[in-house]
Amino acid sequence: MIREFSRRQFLNAIGSAGGSAAVYQSALALGLLSTSHNVRASLKPVPEASKKVILLGAGLASLTSAYELERAGYECTILEASHRIGGRSLTIRGGDTVDELGYPQKCDFDKNKDLFFNAGPSRIPIHHHHLMHYLRTFQIPLEVFTNNNRNAWVHDTKAFGGKRMRIKQYTADARGFMAELSSKSLNRNDFDRPFTDNDFERFQAFLKSYGDLDENALYKGSSRAGYQSGGMITPAIKKTPIDFREILNSSFWEHRMHWAQSEDQSAPMLTATGGMDTIIDGFVDNIDSKILLNAQVQNVQLHEHSVSVSYRHEGQLKQVSGDYCFNSIPKHIMSGIPNNFPRDYQTALSSIPRGLLFKMGIQMNKRFWEDEDIYGGFSWSDQDIEQLWYPPHGLFSKKGIMIVYMFNDEATYRFGLLNPQQRLEKALHEAEAIHPDIRKYVDSAVSVPWHRMNHTMGCTAKWTPELRDQWFKRLQEPVGRHYMIGDQISYHPGWQEGAFGSAHFALSHLNARQHNEITTHVNAINHGQGA
């Protein structure tokens, strides 16, 4: 008889095996959680005299807020310290300036619609529903983004003699050996009979299919790893399986092999055609708010019924006041700007570490990776360079932009210490283990270490569970009439969806308090008239 589980016991078992994401998905399947997505704020129109809102920073959170506030009749002013709109949503093309502290760069890419570099967001998970809503509203052209390419390479200095390996071979052989070991360890009597005889047979069949085992439940190689030769007009010869001990010596299985199966990385993913800054353009084209560039905030002061902001613009110190302030300045920068925030709020701003992230775009005069049957996706390395991205657009064109991407803090910091030419040299030296002839294809390069970029000095927020428990609610809720917003004030830092979610939380809160104030005021007038 099959052992019976309660739903709680079942979810506990799932959690032990697959972690919180598995529990979440299983709970959805059992109908224990709602599948509704974050609700967008629905602002009620403000009556007659409009309310004024100051927005600090011109990234997605502020642009979203301005778009929604305008539609409800609010008057908005956006102050941006940089020379450009978009915050960390940065697409670089030929002729653009990279505003890095100490190392300003000029991009020398050819002027071509396919030769661009998304230095910030590059990918769009389709379950990011705030973002998808605005893409649909503004009719932003989209295309599929290849986030996982099993034909790309995995390189590990500690395995396979330091030689590159096709991801598909590594994955197929790893699954095959694991399935063979599992099949060999099966014993009907060791299961305390949780399965019926039919279940047992089905599980053995599952292992054979999962690992592509032969009729004797042995792994002898798989076509999933690619053929050694043949397969068209001559018989297909399978590749000899790699040594399982070498697979275990490699670190690729730890998380990289499953990278594209995580919640925010799984296919299909999308990207904005022609560059992610087209999303920024969509907002700018649909808002009327005044946007002041090169306007550096100098001071933020809270008052009982307003917020005032001092800023430097065109060589002069100016001031603007509003009924509310939405602030997307990075919290580690805001903590150093004079203000009259409560002491614990200031402590919260300075307590959350900044994230580090590095990207380099390299224009190649030949799309040599396509000669290796690689179209989009990326290769992995255990060196500092971590990922090499291949452009999913412009297939069969002469040139293309390869991206070096790293999110390891230590590697990012090491690259940030170098000047741009030294970074390129280090990246090419490490990339030669994957593409030996890469140097001869290089035209030019531009690098973006986000922890060194002016007016940003970091990439979002690095929340730990302890810091969230201590400070997240304090920063998410307003202080007076001032709201901190941006992906930094979300449970999804580093993603555009976090910025949208944060903005809509603040908008919903403002909407409720604004109309509560109006109702209170009207009731007071009516009460006075009645007296």
CATH topology of the largest domain, anyone?
A: FAD/NAD(P)-binding domain
Structural class assignment:
alpha+beta
Tally of alpha and pi helices: 13
Helix content: 25-40%
Major β-sheet annotation: 7 strands, mixed
Q: What would CATH call the homologous superfamily of the largest domain?
A: FAD/NAD(P)-binding domain
- The amount of beta strand, in percent, is 15-25%
Radius of gyration: 27 Å
How would the global form be characterised? Answer: globular
Mean pLDDT: 90
- Low-confidence blocks of residues: 1-5, 13-37
Task: Provide an overview of this structure.
The protein is α+β, with helices and mostly antiparallel strands and 531 residues long. The chain has four domains: 33 residues; 182 residues, FAD/NAD(P)-binding domain (3-Layer(bba) Sandwich), CATH 3.50.50; 155 residues, Alpha-Beta Complex (Polyamine Oxidase, Chain A, domain 2); 83 residues, Up-down Bundle (de novo design (two linked rop proteins)), CATH 1.20.1440. The protein is built from 13 helices and 24 strands. A seven-stranded mixed sheet has the order 10-9-20-21-22-19-23. The chain has a five-stranded parallel sheet with strand order 14-2-1-18-24, with helices on one face. It has a three-stranded antiparallel sheet with strand order 7-13-8. A hairpin with a 5-residue loop joins strand 20 and strand 21. The chain starts with 6 loop residues before the first helix and ends with a helix.
